[in-house]
Amino acid sequence: MGCLPRIKSPKVAVILLTFYAFTSGCLSTYLVSMISTLEKRFEWPTSRVGWLLAADDLGYLTTVLLVAYYGGKGRQSLVLSLSAFFLFVSACMRALPYLLFGPKFGVDQIRGLFGGAVNASIGSANSTETLIEVLVPNLAHQQAVSFAIQFAGGVVQGVAATPFWNVGMALVDDMAGRNSGIFMGFLFLVRTMSPIVGFLFGSFLITVNEGLVLRPEEFPQGLKDPMWVGAWWLGIVVAGCIVLVNTPLLTMLDVKGLRKAGEDDRAKGRDDSPPVAAAGMAAAPTTSGNVDAIGSMTSIAGRGLDMSNVSCFELLRFIKELYSNTVFLTLYLGTIFEFGAFIILIGYFPKFIESHFYVNANTANMMSSVSLAGASALAIMISSLVSKVFPMSVTHMSLYHAVVNTISALAFPVLFLFRCDKVDMVGPHNFEQDGQLAEMTCYDPASCPKYAYNPVCVGGRSFMTPCLAGCTKLPDLNDTIPGYANCLCSNQTGSPGICAPQCSNVYAYLVLFFCIRVVGTIAAVQFTLIMMKIPSSREMKPLAMGSISFLFGLLGVITPPVAGKLIDTVCIVENPSSSGRSFCLFYDTDRFRQLVHGIGGCFQVPSCLLFFLSYWLSRSRYPVEKDEVTRQKLRRAQKAAEAGGGTGEELQRLPTSG
């Protein structure tokens, strides 16, 4: 350590910490973008993948108090360096299943299968094995081992990210001096934009095959083929290697020198220092990277909970006093309902777009990067600007927060109107129920394999296998238009893949959703400032923010598995499996849409009522409240009046009551 050069420039230190936050944010949302790919790769239902999304929040919850207490006591540069290193370790653990088991399908298997040597629908009616189980005989072992490793990697990721929000943000505030708001605002802006990059990176790698050799053109349905698996592991490895480069540089931070530089800068202009930018204290996305209205309100200050100088008895007293505050309690409860309103859209928005509107996974991720992550980033920048241009009291901020959330809630039910038809899939389970198909005499559907999926579109209807459609000619991918022939006891042709409904209203849906998200999130900074002004003492501010942060972490552990389970209930066609639940191929789009937006509408009603109740309570509890910007303007105006340089008119214009 003594041989390494020391970094004493606050600007360089902020760049290093911003680089770390950016990579961490990209990694988190990258995993969200790969939900459907992981389901296909390991044949997992959505509820199983939900536990992987919850793992990093679980790691955060189990260590945040210890890190908050001990993080400020040791060598903080070493703590930050270890944080980056273990983020690299978590990335390695997430990608380890690929190193152990390789790609799901070999190159020769796929080229032989779709080149005509093997037909996906061949097999006896009494066969108890699916095509997947034939091609991947140790699939059950892969499922169990891979889930355990990836879950552990997620927990490590949550643990690794905790010191950054506790130690790193406190260090930025200490070393930045009068530029604290600028530095923290810049770091937060980059951290807010990083999920967009994560979605776009995931969108690109979905178009790259898991084994890096096969191309989409070699699959009958291209990227939509259930046997196409994107390079899910590659993005994790890249992000891990990038953050590893940052590890030794964080070790070189001269924490004492950086803090002294900040103290000296504050001493130069303590009286006329610029106000702290609201964006610096605004919300950071949760460790799971789910960028939404709720994640947007998880504050940097909350993640930076520091209790190293607080005794247990003081902590209990602070908790009792904080939760006795009715304004805080109503906001707290309202936030829980608001989180519940987006229980599915928080982590599964790309999956909903892909499944409901029948778009490719890469297209769904690109759409999510703008409509979800982009909307939150834009809204928080607007919220920061509003906070700076229009300083508000606690009462006014409570009213502003309640109004914009209510406007968003009133517009939310309109999303119900964007409907797509569900896939009409004919399989062994419903073949005999169709009178027209039951009259076919040229072939016996009972002889078709029970556990197979190789869809074909014939006459506007989708069949799970060419055998069920009576097709006799295999497709040749070398043909100009590959397809099946002699289907349905006639000369009808069939094309590989499903008869996907046309859903051109997806863009109108995304525009409306974008507007709703922007409106619902433009009070994120005000929400954070309210939480920082409610406590009666400075020591309680970290506890207030930590309580909200802890709440988001706890809900981040509970909601992804629950949401995944709910999504599984609207599945109408699973990938055929004789061994249990598998990933869903098609959903009942009507029920899926009703589930997503119905839950949102029901939970937003009590949420908005509680936010307005908080405003009503704040009117009597905080009748005269000036925020930091107003106080500094007041001091400057008073000095100008005393020096004869002001008329006192600016004093009258300043807000003095709620």
From TrEMBL:
Superkingdom: Eukaryota
UniProt entry tagged with the keyword Membrane: yes
Residue numbers spanned by region Disordered: 635-658
Membrane-crossing residue ranges in chain numbering: 12-31, 51-71, 78-101, 147-172, 184-208, 228-250, 327-349, 369-387, 399-418, 506-531, 543-563, 595-617
Molecular function terms from GO: sodium-independent organic anion transmembrane transporter activity
Gene Ontology cellular-component terms listed: basolateral plasma membrane
GO biological process: sodium-independent organic anion transport
Keywords, comma-separated and alphabetical: Disulfide bond, Membrane, Transmembrane, Transmembrane helix
Keyword Cell division recorded: no
Protein name: Solute carrier organic anion transporter family member
Organism: Macrostomum lignano
Upper lineage: Eukaryota, Metazoa, Spiralia, Lophotrochozoa, Platyhelminthes
